[in-house]
Amino acid sequence: MGVTGSPTSINQGTRTKGGIGESTLRPDGILKVTGEFAYSSDMWHEDMLWGHTLRSTVAHAEIVSIDTSEALATSGVYAVLTYDDLPTAVKNYGLEIQDTPVLAHGKVRHHGEPVALVAADHPETARRAAAKIRIDYRELPVITDEASATADDAVLVHEGRTDHHIGHVAHPNIVHRQPIIRGDAEAAKARADVVVSGEYVFGMQDQAFLGPESGLAVPAEDGGVDLYVATQWLHSDLRQIAPVLGLPEDKVRMTLSGVGGAFGGREDLSMQIHACLLALRTGKPVKIVYNRFESFFGHVHRHPAKLWYEHGATRDGKLTHMKCRIVLDGGAYASASPAVVGNASSLAVGPYVVEDVDIEALALYTNNPPCGAMRGFGAVQACFAYEAQMDKVAAELGMDPVEFRQLNAMEQGTLLPTGQRVDSPAPVAELLRRVKAMPLPPERQWESAGEQADVRALPGGLSNTTHGEGVVRGVGYAVGLKNVGFSEGFDDYSTARVRMEVIGGEPVVTVHTAMAEVGQGGVTVHAQIARTELGVAQVTIHPADTRVGSAGSTSASRQTYVTGGAVKNSCEAVREQVLDIGRRKFGTYHPAWATAELLLEGGKVVTDGGEALADLADVLEDEAVDIELEWRHRPTEAFDLRTGQGNGHVQYSFAAHRAVVEVDTELGLVKVIELACAQDVGKALNPLSVVGQIQGGTIQGMGIAVMEEIIVDPRTAKVRNPSFTDYLLPTILDTPTIPVDVLELADDHAPYGLRGVGEAPTLSSTPAVLAAIRNATGLELNRTPVRPEHLTGT
Predict the structure, then answer these.
(1) Which of 17, 81, 191, 415 matches a 20 to 30 Å C-alpha distance to 595?
(2) 3-state secondary structure labels for all residues of 34-45
(3) Beta strands in 277-408 (DSSP E)
(4) How far apart are CA 193 and CA 197, in angstroms?
(5) Are 765 and 702 in contact (CB under 8 A)?
(6) Is 45 within 8 Å of 287 (Cβ atoms)?
(7) What is the rounded CA–CA span in Å between residue 618 and residue 200?
(8) 651-664 and 471-484: which strand pairing?
(9) Averaged pLDDT, 181-205
(10) Which tens digit of pLDDT belongs to each residue from 213-222?
(11) Strand stretches in 100-232, DSSP E
């Protein structure tokens, strides 16, 4: 287009496609479903060695001696490392509290703790050599629960603690404690017509990502190391790795490799330091890939919890008060336990208006497996308990459980127990209305099918245990409250580098962030944002690495909000610089360059009225615009350690579920028929991906309701089921229909009005399933997961 001629118009057909609001396809989607996507476990390097980790066989013991001589003498072994071989005085790491040893020293604190490393020319050689390492243990008493952890004579899991939490906990085996006090719960209790309490137990859930922990460390000529790894937060890893290696951060160059799922389990380090240590010691590339057994010990899990709740209500159904105590088992090391405590306490009341509360949440140090981040992050355990309470109170009052929830539902403007006011839409009652209004699936579908009846629709499925005898239906509802983003005053920011240039005569945009794409679809959304803001069809997503500033963790439902906000911010800066170039070059040709609101659309500079002023290729020519900026959401603040008051969260998300189950009451088998969901997402940047996130979170919540649990022996603190044979996961045959109703009520404080999506459905699906099973059986069922013996009494 000649810039000296009359402006042309941009019509609907020439606008940039693939922007926000469209269900654009994932760039990695086809590769993943065809098996061609390269995951971190697929990486290869010439002359590489294989690393293996030797782990403790006991949960709590003194290490009397370690003999590595036989392992070192094994043909093909290049190195064997123990604690004494670590190169610097920094021998621990951790997300917040640096209490986790790189390799155990003096004692082991949990089953499966890393003790030694082996590098060899073949993975089987490395495993066999590790098995030859002789370790003499003197076993110690195990701490497995609150009673044993907080007894006056309890063995301390960590002696000589100096972290900043130690000053406000009653016992050194308590990692962190957070009370939330508002109003006078005891006085309010006196005004209640009914008071209902309950004790609840939440099992230990595994993230169960399919891609095991893996990575490749390559020693560099400058004395540094290049690490290619599957992780959730490159810069957090870097901050912990570099001091242990004794290297400046710019000599530890990290690149994200293909990630096969995460769900919180890759926030902590696993094999990163180990691979680097072996690579630097041997001078050769070292690859470490965990098998499934190792993976169960190589990452943290969801905190199991014991919860006590009390609610009071007036005869007309208004909640008067709430008291609760939440005890989370953090296992042997702190990981993210302090932040999980903050979430569990501040979200313990749920999406309800309760003016008088007395809440206490704490996490323990024990000799059980370390627990940390998992999708829902403390809010899942609380939601299971408070939603069971809502059903109990409603039953006590003789009210419909949905109407009771709606009567007490929070809304925009509600003051939370922390003193923070909800300043964006909170459509709790509307979500419940919508999910209740969805059509119910037909009853006894196996009968209506006649001879074509499919036993997969029945409890027990293909095991053919019933043809409908003893099968009863139940329906249950639940709704949850989840925060979005990092909280409690954490400096939550992200960085994006955006470059626009002309390649082959066409404008091209490159987006470079350190965001970990773990399957959530962030790379898709970043390209959509760039197309929307810069009007360029060709967008390239640069591989994530530490050569650009931090993007924070892919967790807390924050990446679309925070890194998406950073991409939008950098795109806006690029756009302004491009327009400045255009004004300098062509401003004299048309007054609109100086007077109109200018946009980039369809590869052109256009006015807000749709007049095209110039092609971007003509504006840029040989110039490139390259900008890297940080972006932050509104600041939060720490909760008061005595009262829990404070504006601790930046945003809240809400989802409601209705579960429909069929229960074989004779065998105690459960078939979830449907899990309908209604969720407010603010703005669906990619509607198809949003629905996928909601459905995925829903199934993860269903898993902990009816089958998923890591079983830890209470006598030995050993994991009894570290495999997908014995740790049961929902498969496609267990997956019910999941109709989704997406509500879009914009949060004016967020980019495009969006709201974090991924975690909220994980909260409410669990208690909805439990409520449906209770409805079918009449049993109280106060623990997850529900097992057959809980339903049959056997």
Answers:
(1) 17
(2) CCCCCCHHHCCC
(3) 286-289, 305-313, 319-329, 356-364
(4) 14
(5) yes
(6) yes
(7) 66
(8) antiparallel
(9) 98
(10) 999 999 999 9
(11) 100-101, 107-108, 114-120, 134-139, 174-182, 194-202, 214-219, 225-229
